[in-house]
Amino acid sequence: MTTEVKATNVVWHDGEVSRTDRYRILGQKGATLWFTGLSGSGKSTVAVALEKELAKRGRLCYRLDGDNIRLGINKNLGFSAEDRTENIRRIGEIAKLFVDTGVLALTSFISPYRADRDSARALHEQAGMEFIEVYVDCPLGEAEKRDPKGLYKKARAGEIKNFTGISDPYEAPEQPELVLKTAEMSLDEEVAAVIALLEKRGILLAV
Ligand SMILES: Nc1ncnc2c1ncn2[C@@H]1O[C@H](COP(=O)(O)OS(=O)(=O)O)[C@@H](OP(=O)(O)O)[C@H]1O
Ligand SMILES: Nc1ncnc2c1ncn2[C@@H]1O[C@H](COP(=O)(O)OP(=O)(O)O)[C@@H](O)[C@H]1O
Description:
By secondary structure, this protein is an alpha/beta fold. 43% of the residues lie in helices and 13% in strands. The relative contact order is 0.20.
């Protein structure tokens, strides 16, 4: 259902203010930081802490978070492979809009399928936009021990079907820009690692 193109006879309409103009108005460059990992690995925790640190540095971010987005624009999607693919397709497009305005989009989705993440990356890179994949790497045993929402317990009890890591696959990134081993690093170290990468890539330079 999802990738079928039904919109025909539509033509892109250009404006007279460019992306570069928008970046100048905002004084910063846009980029997507794509956090991927198991439920409970720390995607949301890292994004929240990073947003706070970037705000301190005067950088505007917007967090797109799995649970939040699934309460709104993606409330019609479940957890079948097809629905997860459509979930990630929409998030990729939404993140791209934020980047186009000059905002740092921090996306926290399990995004278990490599092909879906690669599509989100391609969408950005074809448009000359930064896409930084951050693998929030946490062993299943540790994520299950944390179980911040009690979902692993329910999945083990068979109350949640197709639960990532238990009864559904997670395809780890092969060449992410950054790996955060959240069972070994502190939250402060994780935020510092992301900031260091953003600095190295010139993403935090004022425009
Ligand atoms: N079956 C199943 N598998 C995995 N996760 C489940 C499932 N059912 C509900 N949840 C809750 O939904 C959150 C994951 O949503 P995402 O949009 O990130 O998932 S995905 O990227 O489309 O795979 C996930 O949030 P996080 O724990 O923040 O990852 C869970 O709270
Ligand atoms: N080093 C760490 N980095 C991130 N989260 C951690 C770390 N150590 C423990 N945690 C805990 O792990 C849980 C991760 O939950 P959450 O951020 O919601 O994960 P996700 O968004 O990947 O589902 C939180 O309760 C958080 O406090």
